[in-house]
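Person: Please work through this fold.
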Amino acid sequence: MTRTSKLAGLTLATLAAALVASTAMAERGPGRDGAQMRAPFAAFDFAAVDANKDGKVTPEEIAAFRAAEITAADTDGDGLMSAEELSAIHLQRMQGRANDMAQKMIERMDSDKDGKVSTAEMLARNAPKTMFERIDTDNDGALSEAEIAAAKDRMADRRGGKSRRGGERRGHDNN
């Protein structure tokens, strides 16, 4: 085995492990609207991974499934994942989550059951009003810049002093 093919194999194995770990650590915890997000393995497609259809999934089946996903994502077939190929994987997953979220929003907000959400149906939601009232701490019917900054700080504190993307809050000492 050449050094390049060993390196490609190691790279693919590392990516497979990372993808398995990302499935295990699927989104969880409270979402933006307070609803519970997906728990670990929520996006796990058992039937697709159970290759021999015995009703059990082994580590080997998971590794084979992930390896097939990686091979399919390697669009130029060089055995290596470029930034563009990795980006395509992420975009595909984000698109799937966005489609799921959109469908759930329609199910939740489509009061006339036409399969679409009108402006009136979206505005009928009480959440923005409730959020406004929660942020308007001085109850004057308007939001000041200080009230919005304080609300952002409270949200960051709930995430352990981290911003939505996991970084430190700007302008704050988190020690």
